[in-house]
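Annotated sample (chain length 458).
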Amino acid sequence: MGNPNGLSSTTIHSAFNIEPQTPAQKRAMSYANTTKLLFDEILSAKQPADRVLANYFREHKKHGSKDRKVIRESLFSLFRWWGWFKAAGDHQQAAHFFAMLSASALLEAHPWQDIAQAWHELSQSTHDYQRLQSIPVNNLTDKLALVRQLFPQVVLELTDLLPEWFWQVCPIDAKRRPNLIEAMSSRPPIWGRAQSINSQTAVSQLQALGIEASLSPFFEDAINLGSKSMNLNEITLYKEGNIEIQDLASQVIGQICAPEPWQHWWDACSGAGGKTLQLRSLMQTAATKQHTPLQGSIVSSDIRANALEELSKRAQRAQFDGISIARWRSDALPVAANYFDGVLVDAPCSCTGTWRRNPDMRWLDTLDAVMDKATLQLDILSRSSQAVKAGGTLIYATCSLSPVENEEVVSAFLQQHPEFNLVPIRHPFTGEQTEMLTVWPFEANTDGMFVARMQRKH
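Output written by the structure step:
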């Protein structure tokens, strides 16, 4: 693994004012320097970690794949356990930063244990590293016990792994709270969805490439792609549009929409089109099963031109017709009123349900990230509802876990729009019937998601 950041040894060492004593410590110091530069930039600029990291790697092309992996995984680990680490000491102190890196490598059993041990040595810890390695970290209780040993000077609790304000706006009963924290402290697998191809065929082809693919017990087109990173552009199934990356919780939305082959749908906040493609794929599958022609269509709208351009590329790659674009250019509806059999409003939100994939965001966001969205969400839902025809379906969804952005918005909408009724939903993972559905990350190893289904009266 050479020098991971391409900086001179003098520059690297002076960042911590510690002189490495071994080759392993020298490499560890270099990785630590790069990781700290990125960590500090993310916290100070309040920019998403994946964006900062992508920019960094684009500007520093000398990194090998192993170097990138150590830097990437170490960086995200720091944010995953930051609730404990920030309580235990000042990360601007070199010894504590090395202790954080070493602890995160132990907590997640990273394979670069030689580097992790060097970080441990540089932290000047008195703990025996081999003994620490022997401590089990099979669950969150084990991990809390390990961190309490490493940082005995502070009182640490499981709930510290999520910001205090989260618990104020995302209530969950005490019995399930540890399950949520455990899920939020682990990475979900990569989920995909088969399109225009049998899912078992797709799984077999992916397995032949060494990808740990498996079928989902919940949806026939859903595929678990494991947790290892992969270059999608090297996978023929992806290049030919036969597989799309979409989290299982996100797939719940399309399944609840359940579009028929003859229906016309509007995806009012389509973004780059993940759910638009899912809706079209579900229409196609339903047409095949029902032995009926595929006569329906989907109109996709967003305020961002670049997102709609990406949607068009993805639709072309999938060889899907019947998808058209209508960009939001003002408050006026970009589509016909009272026309659609179904309207999907996947509203902009705080994205607290995606914190498993973006652990940095729980520390970059504040309470305002949840509290300042409801007015916009209600406005978008109200305007979009005008496009639903009599008897048609209106779906409201977010990737938030907060009732402020979810149930409260739907309740306010229904109060203002008595022409709509709430339609009960059956939870696809538990089978329970519910008026409005929150998918919790621990229920099927997914992100978090909310969805409500409404119908316009005839």
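Annotation: The first helix runs from residue 9 to 14.
Annotation: DSSP finds 20 helices and 14 strands in the chain.
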